[in-house]
Design goal:
With about 150 residues, the protein is mainly α. It folds into two domains: about 70 residues, no CATH class; about 80 residues, no CATH class. It has six helices and no strands. It is flat. The model has no long low-confidence stretch (mean pLDDT about 90). Keywords: Membrane, Transmembrane, Transmembrane helix. Pfam families: TctB.
């Protein structure tokens, strides 16, 4: 009875996920000369997820029939979600091997094309500039080294 509304089930599942995520984020090694260490963002996101999942669990709002119908995902959208999840897994698997700049640019371009954005030149330009700016920001300004992969810098 305590887990009857869907918000409580989701809140409990997300709380458990946030706990596991926080545990793993505390396993990230710290670097003595970094201004902002690599574990700041994962820990911040973990605590934010924990807080929001607790708020979802204690929420007393009753679910309407219209809200229940919104939970049904059409098969076409489910395949799109699974496709993006597949791209994310490939990105994670190849990130260390190929490198951040190339994999991020390929991921952004492929995902935007897969989701229906048809201006390929704009998409390629945004993907390259975005991944290069992130790489330069992390490596040279924040002193957090991202995997260079096959690139010499």
């Amino acid at each position: 009875m305590i887990l009857r509304p869907i918000n409580r089930k989701l809140g409990l599942a997300l709380t458990l996920f946030a706990g596991a995520y926080l545990f793993l984020s505390y396993q990230i090694p710290s670097y003595p000369y970094a201004l902002v260490d690599a574990d700041v963002v994962p820990k911040g996101l973990g605590f934010l997820l924990l807080l929001l999942s607790i708020l979802l669990f204690v929420q007393k709002k009753e679910e309407t029939e219209q809200e229940k119908q919104k939970r049904t995902i059409p098969k076409k959208e489910l395949y799109v979600l699974l496709g993006v999840a597949g791209f994310i897994l490939i990105y994670i698997f190849l990130l260390e091997i190929i490198g951040f700049v190339i994999m991020t640019a390929a991921f952004v371009f492929t995902c935007s094309s897969f989701l229906g954005y048809k201006k390929y030149k704009v998409s390629a330009l945004v993907a390259i500039i975005f991944s290069l700016l992130l790489y330069l920001l992390f490596n040279y300004l924040l002193l957090i080294h991202l995997p260079p992969g096959v690139l010499p810098f």
